[in-house]
Amino acid sequence: METRTLSLIVANDGKQVFDGSATIISIEDDAAGEYVKVHQLNEDCEPGTIKIDPDEWPTLRKAINKMFKNCREYSA
Questions:
Q1: What whole-number distance in Å separates Cα of residue 62 and Cα of residue 64?
Q2: What DSSP element (H or E) covers 63?
Q3: pTM value?
Q4: Residue closest to 24 by CA, chosen among 3, 16, 14
Q5: Residue in 1, 7, 2 with CA at minimum distance from that of residue 29
Q6: 51: closest CA among 13, 1, 12?
Q7: Which of 3, 60, 52, 18 shows the shortest CA–CA distance to 36?
Q8: Where are the domains of the chain?
């Protein structure tokens, strides 16, 4: 047995996880191998887009890199 972290949320201090400025980074798998998905619940964005503030980029980049390192290789 093991415990895996499959998602991280990058948000401003004190904001709720469903806040539109929060960015969700997750490991997904559609049965063809794991990949990283990045999304926001921001109603001000067009579907399929995210907004990144320059001040949050270093933290967001670090979280994305961490999730890529946690992806498993696909083995059929």
A1: 6
A2: helix 57-70
A3: 0.84
A4: 16
A5: 7
A6: 12
A7: 60
A8: 7-70
Measured torsion, CA atoms of residues 15, 19, 42, 30, in degrees rounded to the nearest 10: 110
CA-based Rg of the chain, rounded to a whole angstrom? Answer: 14
Neighbours of 13 (CB within 10 A): 4
Do 23 and 11 contact (CB within 8 A), yes or no? yes
Cβ contact 55:34 at 8 Å: no
Nearest Cα to Cα of residue 38 among 46, 50, 53: 50
The pLDDT tens digits of the residues spanning 27-76 come to 999 888 999 999 998 888 788 888 898 999 999 999 999 999 999 876 65
- Identity of the amino acid at 17: V
d(CA 6, CA 37): 10
According to DSSP, the β-strands at 7-10 and 23-29 are antiparallel
Instruction: Take residue 5 and report the two structure tokens written for it.
Output: 């972290």
